[in-house]
Each structure stands twice: as structure tokens, then as C-alpha cells.
Design a protein that fits this description.
The chain contains 14 helices and six strands. By secondary structure, the chain is an alpha+beta fold. It has three domains: 72 residues, no CATH class; 85 residues, no CATH class; 65 residues, no CATH class.
């Protein structure tokens, strides 16, 4: 086998050359995502991101060669269509390739990292200071006062990864980079007990149920999240039921033709 052929195979095998999953692989991903979606542990995720939220996480994990459960359980987040990695996951993805990240300075005022590639020896430094964070308006978030060293590390790591280890992280950002920076990504408000009962009564855990499809239709038309619609509808369940009946009547003829 020629060196050129080996190089072509290598390129085809890397995580960023993958096409979308098809056939049995896609069916397995879909089945697993549906099973996870039916558990209460990921109810908030599907309420906020829709019935395919977990499948989207799995697709990202597949592209970046991250174990599906590691991605699902805090390693990967999708915010406004952009992928965010926890700092631990980003660190892991770089180090598992054999590259080195050294912390030269790490305190509440400055983080200074040095990255060294194992394949070609390229190195780069990344510095992020509290002054830089203040100038960028990041310190308005209280977490910068409670965990300054961690926040500085996250930003220094992200800058280093994008500049030196882009082949490891793709186009992902570090957690919170698109929104308010936090040690953990911002979570939506938990569903009330009233909303939880509504989910059970209306069988909304079944993402293929008429009620769930009705919620998805409202999401599409209003731009609201499932959680917002469920929370509001749980306060007026009778109104929701009447509108659901109209939705079923309207969609039934189309289904019968199919």
C-alpha cells in the first residue's frame, strides 16, 4: 500500500469525514435515543430541545468520537445550533490524542496554558486574565466571582484548543461560551409538579402520541420550547384538551389518506 493510499484512508477514517449515520446504525441510534427520552432523567432535555434532542447529542458524539453516554451526561451541549463541550471533555479529547497541555500559571487573576502537539511538536501559549474577562463583559455573571480560576481556565483552554487542537475538537466551543459563562451550562427552570402531572396525564413522554405531536406543532408555529408550552398548558389543561381535539380532527384526514 502506497503512502498516498494510507493518507487517503486516514482522512476517511477521521471523525470529521463521517457522513450522517444511515441504515442499521441510524436505527440503533434512534432506538437508544427514544429509550433515553422515555426516562425521567432526560425529561428536561427533551422538553426544551424537542423529541430528537437526544438523537442530536448522539450525532455530535458520533462525529467527535465521544462515547454516547459521556456526551449525554454532561459532556456535550447544543445551544442555538452550536456545539459546546464541557471543559473536562475538551481536555480529554486533546489529551487522548497524546497532546500536552501544561498550566504555567493558574490563579484567580490569570490562567496561562502551554499546548504542545505530539505529532509535529508545534506549541502555542494561551493567556486569559480577569482584566480580559471584565473587558469582554463576562464578569457580570456571578460565577466569575465564585469560581474565577475555573472560568479563566475554561476560556484559556478554549482559545488554545481552537488555535492548536482544532482537529481534536472540530468547531466546538467550551461550555457557556455562547451564553452566560458558568461552571456548568445554564439549565432551564425545573418543571413544576403541576407540569409533571400534566405530562403524565397527557402521555407527553410518548413522543409519538397525539398530544406530543400537538406540542411539537405549537413549538414550530410559535418558536417556543416544549417546556414553555407544557408549563403554560398545564395551568389550563381543559383548554389544551379542546385545542388537541381540533388538532386531531384537522390532521386525521391527512393520516387516513396516507
Amino acid at each position: 500500500m502506497s503512502e498516498k493510499t494510507k493518507e487517503i484512508i486516514k482522512l476517511e477514517d477521521d471523525g470529521f469525514s463521517k457522513g450522517l449515520a444511515i441504515g442499521n446504525e441510524f436505527e440503533n441510534m434512534m432506538k437508544w435515543s427514544e429509550m433515553f427520552a422515555e426516562t425521567k432523567y432526560y425529561q428536561t432535555m427533551t422538553a426544551q430541545g424537542g423529541k430528537f434532542a437526544i438523537l442530536a447529542i448522539f450525532a455530535v458524539a458520533r462525529d467527535l468520537d465521544i462515547p454516547y453516554t459521556s456526551a449525554l451526561n454532561g459532556g456535550v451541549y447544543i445551544v442555538q445550533g452550536r456545539v459546546q463541550l464541557s471543559s473536562q471533555m475538551m481536555n480529554l479529547m486533546i489529551r487522548r490524542k497524546g497532546h500536552s497541555i501544561k498550566k504555567k500559571i493558574g490563579n484567580d487573576e490569570v490562567c496561562h496554558l502551554i499546548g504542545i502537539r505530539c505529532d509535529n511538536g508545534d506549541s502555542m501559549e494561551s493567556i486569559f486574565t480577569m482584566e480580559m474577562a471584565t473587558k469582554a463583559g463576562l464578569t457580570k455573571n456571578p460565577v466569575w466571582k465564585t469560581h474565577p480560576a475555573r472560568m479563566l481556565f475554561n476560556r484559556a483552554l478554549s482559545n488554545l484548543a481552537k488555535d492548536l487542537f482544532a482537529d481534536c475538537i472540530g468547531n466546538a466551543l467550551v461550555e457557556g461560551e455562547m451564553e452566560s459563562i458558568d461552571v456548568t451550562p445554564e439549565e432551564p427552570e425545573p418543571l413544576s409538579s403541576e407540569a409533571m402531572r400534566f405530562i403524565t396525564d397527557m402521555n407527553l413522554m410518548d413522543l409519538s402520541s397525539k398530544a406530543s405531536l400537538f406540542v411539537d406543532a405549537i413549538c414550530k408555529n410559535s418558536g417556543e420550547s416544549r417546556q414553555e408550552i407544557i408549563s403554560r398548558s398545564s395551568k389550563e389543561p381543559e383548554k389544551f384538551k379542546k385545542n388537541l381535539e381540533k388538532f386531531i380532527e384537522k390532521t386525521q384526514p391527512t393520516e387516513e389518506k396516507d
